[in-house]
Amino acid sequence: MADYDNRSALHLAASEGAEAAVRFLIDCAPKTNREKIISPRDRWGGSPLGEAIHNGHHECAKMLKEAGGTEGNMTHFKK
To answer: Per the domain annotation, does 30 fall within a domain?
Structure first.
C-alpha cells in the first residue's frame, strides 16, 4: 500500500529515522517480491534507502542496505 505520492510505510519510516518500524517492515517482507517491497519507488523515483541516506538516518540506511535496498532516484532532493 502507498499514499497519493506512491510512498510506502517504509519510505516514511526511513525518512523519519524510525528504526524499529524499518526493522519491523523489513522483517515482515515476504521472500517473494522482496525487492519490490524493500525498494519501492515513489512518484519521483525515490526509495526508502535514499530517504534514509538523505535525512542522515545511518542505522536505517544500514538495515535497508543489508536487506538489499537500492537508492533510487535522488535528483528530487537537489535544489
So the answer is: yes
Question: For residue 49, what is the enclosing H or E element?
Answer: helix 48-54
What is the extent of the structural domain holding 64?
9-73
Residue 16, burial from CB neighbour count under 10 angstroms (0-12, 13-18, 19+):
middle
C-alpha cell at 63: 538495515
pLDDT digits (tens, 9 = 90+) for 31-77: 888 888 999 999 999 999 999 999 999 999 999 999 999 998 766 65
Question: What CATH number did the domain enclosing 29 receive?
Answer: 1.25.40.20
Give the separation between CA 36 and CA 57, rounded to whole angstroms.
21
pTM exceeds 0.85 for this model: yes
